[in-house]
User: Fold this.
Amino acid sequence: MPLRVLSLLGCMLLTGCSPLNQESYAQLQSGMSKAEVERLLGGPDECSAALGVSSCTWGDKQRYISVQYAGDKVLMFSAKGLK
Assistant:
């Protein structure tokens, strides 16, 4: 497992910090699988899909990371209100 993922998991376990932060967002890459994204961010709060494209969101309207997938691979992603 990459060191960044391990340190993020350690932070979450020890201090309860949220994966909704700039560090997690910076690790997202086009082409990642859904499983890789969920290892990084945890399970999404909401997902929707149509015609082979899906969109999943972690967080709420004020602070979120949104990831769009084509099939099982990240197509694009965006965020709002991260610290």
